[in-house]
Prior knowledge:
alpha+beta
Amino acid sequence: xxxxxxxxxxxxxxxxxxxxxxxxxxxxxxxxxxxxxxxxxxxxxxxxxxxxxxxxxxxxxxxxxxxxxxxxxxxxxxxxxxxxxxxxxxxxxxxxxxxxxxxxxxxxxxxxxxxxxxxxxxxxxxxxxxxxxxxxxxxxxxx
Length: 143
């Protein structure tokens, strides 16, 4: 195994698969989100456990309460929690572990298509919030 991110997360997870946080239906096909909170970051596994059927346009909402509170820190999250995704944006660096590519995403990570019985493995870090309406809404510090 030569993928540095996969090795790093495996070592930090100690073989633990993470916890299932969400299960959502896309046209009758369930997609699961498993997450492991790391120091100032998070690993997310998005899984299509079905043996029949692909799912298109799968998204991970960064502003989902449990994710956002961990990634932003409690004080920053409390400051903006009721407006995340509306007039306050959550911006994070996202590394797709299997594709070995980096992006910066705002509010939602678009996974795209998940074929039957397939997985997307993401490392999310360096998150902050930004609001075009007020400097007071912006926070980049963690607790």
